[in-house]
């Protein structure tokens, strides 16, 4: 029996966005084709010992050459929206507008035009982890210069594609990029600089986003009428022991250090959460760190991040129970500053990767939390998914159940709690290059056989059932 068919579609608004998401480095391949410049992910993967079995995104799903196969997948699902990212260095090989790669422009024009011809609305992420290597060589996200480079790139994209693209995300998951790339060294550029660079990188991403949002607002909005946001990921967190005040406080810190870090400046106060400011300062004192504030301050002379999002772009995957670790001995580090540890509840199933405990009701709670703490924004769930590790079944019933439960929770948030959810993007359209896990972890609604050059796309049962939900929703609309 198809589980997703039981989903009541009534709760979803008429113009609900039914989407799927991908990112350039994870699907495109063609890493050095037609004038593309290298990105930090090309460099990271080409160095040995970084990624599962030293796999790379050199070819990935070869979407650069097989875009039309992706389009067929999108049509088969009946998506109303498709979220993809631009490869910055495919458009601007050295990261700057000094030279524009015409073949990159042609590629994305074709993708966008084909989507629109099929009544699928594109949502474009300007930077999904793959910073141009040429800019990394000039200091990358750690350098304040990056704000100018990003703004020029964003303006170039608005100018070139904004007549057709109406939904933009500036930076995807600044938390993940800063934490895994500069604190833990697990993602590109692979730096391990605990307790310092992570905040600087996050700050510059926020400043870059702010500049780009203002550029859109000033120069493009009145002509193009689109919307711009920043892609924020968050776990949902609850205290391990709800009766322990330290765990309760640690849970708030856990949320503040992941979601509040960016949501608070953009949606609430224009500044970082108090818990971050006070903990980081106290820890700096404790460690005798005297090279200036580790958490940068927002300057009065700069544009404020407050109000720089036209919707809330949320990536949700998992939940945690949180215990207080604020008095545990630690090195100078992000985790030490946070003073909180998230663990999984033994009752939660884990899918594929150990970090991904499957907790659909966590999304429901998180949606309510965002409604309450971020001034009831319009929310797009821009990523959410369920992974499998090989050997995988095309009859992926667990994943079908996951989508059923998740969409049920989203429908409850809309119907029962009045959360303004505008859309849902499954991660991911295709099995793809899952960063440091290479091709071992599969999130796709379509299966790919990475051992064969054809890279044939085959729909999973979860893809068929997701398509059935979308089609039922559309049919219902036609009748009313
Ligand atoms: C997100 C990321 C995606 C995808 C997903 C699944 O953090 O934005 O690119 O890989 O995680 O792990």
TrEMBL record:
Q: Which GO terms describe its cellular component?
A: cytosol; membrane
Q: Keyword annotations for this protein?
A: Glycosidase, Hydrolase
Quote the catalytic residue positions. Answer: 383
- A Pfam family found in this protein is Glyco_hydro_1
One GO molecular-function annotation for this sequence? Answer: glycosylceramidase activity
Gene Ontology process terms (BP):
carbohydrate metabolic process; glycosylceramide catabolic process
Record's family?
A: Belongs to the glycosyl hydrolase 1 family.
What name appears for this protein in its UniProt entry? Glucosidase, beta, acid 3 (gene/pseudogene)
Organism annotation: Astyanax mexicanus (Blind cave fish)
- Lineage, please? Eukaryota, Metazoa, Chordata, Craniata, Vertebrata
